[in-house]
Specification:
By secondary structure, this protein is α/β, with parallel strands linked by helices. 41% of the residues lie in helices and 9% in strands. It has 2 domains: 6-44; 108-300, 3-Layer(aba) Sandwich (Uracil-DNA Glycosylase, subunit E). It has helices at residues 6-22, 28-31, 35-48, 108-122, 156-161, 168-180, 206-223, 233-240, 267-277, 282-300; strands spanning 139-141, 147-151, 189-192, 227-231, 253-256, 259-264. Strands 1-3-2-4-6-5 form a 6-stranded mixed sheet, with helices on both faces. Residues 20-33 and 90-102 have low confidence and may be disordered.
Length: 302
């Protein structure tokens, strides 16, 4: 086929348009051209169209700049670094409890027995501590608790309120129970070896402990905990029947009437250590280890 310039092609197309207009757009004139002429005209129409734009492609990322080397030569571009995987989001911590909190169950029989015993304690005059007491700090908590805490004696705040562990030491013990063990304070049972405050917050004497022992023994028997926690060495010695100031009690499992017993540091000792060092101390760390052991032992059969 003879080549034509673009102008020639446009003239032919313009003539073809006029022929169609004369034929009222019916295309009769186009058909009269014959097959050969129609083929040539179709080729010209196609060739007159502007070339289609190439499809857009993603621009390649610029490669790493070549590293210059001595002598003016360029080293080969380093291999692209492997794509870094985004770390998986950390699982949200929802807390845990090895000693699950159970709503205290009302035990009318146990409550009645301890209420009668508490009434006796309020009128007790078996030792000299009764002379200056304001209130008897009897005990409180779940009467079916898995864990029972036993301190040595009430302090000033406990004497005023008639409750165990409500002063500074009590607040720390509550933190140990609720923030450390992650159970509510009311789901454990808390009592003291002696129920009346010794003068000047001194340690209770052996005769005072002996006079009050019948109350504590009955409290433990009625509650029937799976684990006993002696809060401080005085309470530990009293429960174990050891001489006061016996050493080496903390950090080991012992038994009281067949119940596993763990001795921990008294919160007042932890507070004194923190005051000296202005921070958490080694005593805090080992207390946490003891508490974890208590949780494991209490939750083992639960």
């Amino acid at each position: 086929m003879t080549d034509h310039s673009p102008n020639d092609r446009l003239r032919l197309l313009d003539g073809f348009r006029r022929r169609l207009e004369l034929d009222n757009g019916m295309g009769v004139e186009y058909l009269s051209l014959g097959k050969e002429e129609a083929k040539r005209l179709g080729e010209w129409i196609e060739s007159a169209r502007p070339p289609a734009a190439p499809p857009k492609t993603a621009r390649p990322r610029p490669s790493a700049k070549p590293v210059p080397v001595p002598g003016g030569r360029r080293s080969a571009s380093p291999a692209p670094a492997p794509a870094m995987r985004r770390p998986a989001p950390a699982e949200k911590w929802t807390g845990f409890s090895l000693v699950p909190f159970v709503e205290p169950v009302d035990r009318p029989d146990r409550r009645a027995e301890l209420a009668e015993l508490e009434k006796q304690a309020h009128g007790c005059e078996d030792c000299r501590l009764c002379e200056k007491r304001t209130n008897v700090a009897w005990g409180e908590g779940d009467l079916a608790a898995k864990v029972m805490f036993v301190g040595e004696a009430p302090g000033r705040d406990e004497d005023e309120q008639g409750r165990p562990f409500v002063g500074k030491s009590g607040r720390l013990l509550t933190d140990i129970i609720e923030k450390g063990m992650r159970i509510e304070r009311r789901s454990v049972y808390i009592a003291n070896v002696v129920k009346c405050r010794p003068p000047g917050n001194r340690e209770p004497r052996e005769d005072e402990i002996a006079a009050c022992r019948k109350y504590l023994d009955r409290q433990i028997a009625v509650v029937g905990p799976k684990v006993l926690v002696a809060v401080g060495g005085v309470a530990g010695c009293a429960l174990l029947g050891l001489p006061q100031k016996s050493s080496g009690l903390r950090g080991n499992w012992r038994e009281y009437a067949g119940i596993p017993l763990r001795v921990i540091y008294h919160p007042s000792y932890l507070l004194r250590q923190r005051a000296y060092e202005n921070d958490r101390t080694e005593a805090d760390r080992v207390t946490w280890e003891d508490v974890k052991e208590v949780m494991r032992r209490a939750g083992r059969d639960g």
